[in-house]
Amino acid sequence: MVHESDIRAMPEISQPSQQTRTTLFKLQARQCRFIVSDDQSRAIFCGSETQEGSSWCPWHRRLVYARPSTAEVSAGKRPA
Questions:
Q1: Burial of residue 45, with CB atoms counted within 10 A of its CB: 0-12 exposed, 13-18 middle, 19 or more buried
Q2: In the predicted model, what is the mean pLDDT of residues 2-17?
Q3: Of 3, 8, 29, 35, which is most buried with the most CB atoms under 10 A?
């Protein structure tokens, strides 16, 4: 889980434009796969450009990715 204090400490990233939103059938390579709609049966994806090797744009990656804690790294645990 990403905490608000962690987000404030990260570099500034612009919120994705609503103009890039798309459906599953129009989604292309290197487009963000974060679902932005509330209706899961008619999913609308962010569609913003992703970085190489990521399924999410920088904005949404920040929401879904949690760095392992120092204790987990020290104990050799891998994130779930």
A1: buried
A2: 68
A3: 35
